[in-house]
Amino acid sequence: MYCAASNNHLVLDNLEDAHILPDPQDDTLQDKHGCPAYVSPEILNPSGVYSGKQADVWSLGVILYTMLVGRYPFHDAELAKLFAKIRQGLFVVPESLSPLAKCLLYSILRVDPSERLTTEEILCHPWFHSFSEGTSRSSGKTKAAPDQLVPDIVFEEGDMFFFT
């Protein structure tokens, strides 16, 4: 996923890591491929089994945070440190965000997958109904987000499975 040159459209690209679930009731996955900044804590656990839907909700939270704040909620140039931050689930939400935006982010980016909102609950969240057309969902004011620099990542042995 990336932001188009016009800076107002997200583009979904490269579905090589997408999974089509044969049984929609069973979303258990063991695959550990993906973009490190969007990886959920349970994917990093040694058990290796996780809910694909709950992991996707985490990634959606990272996307939403990045869109509202202009940077990743968890970031570090070293993958080991980045993964440690993700496992802890500690992130800072700027005071400039509305209380409803903060509530939604804190409800999605929860370390325990069973505590995260479902996609249905996310769509019903009051944040989606708290603004009018043409205003920012974070503060109610129209504003342009600054471009974000993506840090260079230092790879360690064992971290490369996220890129294969």
From TrEMBL:
Pfam families: Pkinase (PF00069). Gene3D superfamilies: Transferase(Phosphotransferase) domain 1. SUPFAM superfamilies: Protein kinase-like (PK-like). GO terms for cellular component: nucleus. Residues 1-128 form the Protein kinase domain. PROSITE patterns: PROTEIN_KINASE_DOM. One of its GO terms (biological process) is positive regulation of proteasomal ubiquitin-dependent protein catabolic process. Coiled coil: none annotated. GO terms for molecular function: ATP binding; mitogen-activated protein kinase kinase binding; protein kinase activity. This is Putative tribbles-like 2-like.
